[in-house]
Amino acid sequence: MFIPLHDKNALRFIPFQIVTVGLIAVNVAVYLWQQSLDEASFLAVVYAGGLTPTTLFGGVPLPPDLDAFPVAVTLFTHIFLHASWLHLIGNMVFLWVFGDNVEDAMGHARFLAFYVASGIAGGLAHAWFEPASAAPLIGASSATSGIIGAYLLLYPRVKVWVLMLMRIPLRLPALWALVSWVAFQAYFALSGTWSENAWWAHLGGFAAGLALTPFLRRPGVPLFGPIASPNQEAVRAPRFR
Fold first, then answer.
1. HSE on the CB side for 26, CA within 13 Å?
2. What are the structural domains of the chain?
3. Span 8-16, mean pLDDT?
4. Is 50 exceeded by the pLDDT of residue 236?
5. Which residues pair with 169 in a beta bridge?
6. CB count, 10 Å around CB of 6?
7. Tens of pLDDT, residues 192-220
8. What's residue 230's pLDDT?
9. C-alpha distances in Å from residue 182, one per residue of 2, 86, 99, 121, 165
10. 178, 106 in Cβ contact below 8 A?
């Protein structure tokens, strides 16, 4: 696996990625609120706002004290809850590195709709493939996986700095980095190995990103776009601190 660090892919249509930054701010604010709760209340929020497959598709109700939202609403609320700082930061890094260019290609309103739709699609995929799971699904990873799908379609040749295996910085075409990410998710999803990672949610969000991007991109924004111009691609490696 890798962590994205930086891309040199200038914005072309918008002066600033206001929705991307706003989503990061909302996710951080929600998690800070979660952190202000005691342990029992923290878990209650996770179960109330998380997406539980047995409740969504199996009709198994939550206990009355946790039944805060209609089950359909948890398809939305689960996207904004996180289990830990590491969980939150991992998702927000992907959103920060790749979200600005996808927002640029779609426009603010369509990008926001795209983000939420990808998150819902990932939640549905998780519940469909894990219908017996009574564990709540939380996190923005299905929504950020949609962004990965969009970036792969829009900017496959743009070079991206990534940190491989948490220690090796590499500059790779987005195509190589993101296809390896998809292969990693698919391998573990199909292997059936239990994990805290919701592999099918990632793949469902990614598939939604692939499906929606051709329809939500601005007119004139090509798929499989050309590599950034020389003035956008720095020849020196950025410094990592």
1. 14
2. 2-216 (1.20.1540.10)
3. 95
4. no
5. 163
6. 18
7. 766 788 999 999 999 999 999 999 999 99
8. 41
9. 12, 21, 17, 16, 16
10. no
